[in-house]
Amino acid sequence: MKKSGILNPELAKQIALLGHFDKICIADAGLPIPVGVVRIDLALVKGVPLVQQVLEALELDVQVQEVIMAAETSAHTPGLVQLTADLWPEAAKSQVSHEDFKKLLGECRFVVRTGEFTPYANVILVSGVPF
Known about the structure:
With 131 residues, the chain is α/β, with parallel strands linked by helices. It contains five helices and six strands.
């Protein structure tokens, strides 16, 4: 049995398949996920797991070169903006409208749905290379 790191088998598999410039999304419970995009549903109950918990776990496994959020996140969920800055200080930061954010979901290799109930608590991570 695996004893550390990402234990969810589907999430671990999808992370292992990431290449340079691939996009993944960590989403609140309400974000509409397009048909055809791989959905890894971690939502158990309201608040479990939180987007923060998933991002903190991913920081250990995923090289991130860019963080994309909706512009509305700054007003509604400023702690998430700071968290991503703390987790990936070297990564570029981009903001787009919430509508454009939802359009970017179609470019994601997968979306992780959490139990987060905070508005605009969604993040797209663009994978980089560790060298």
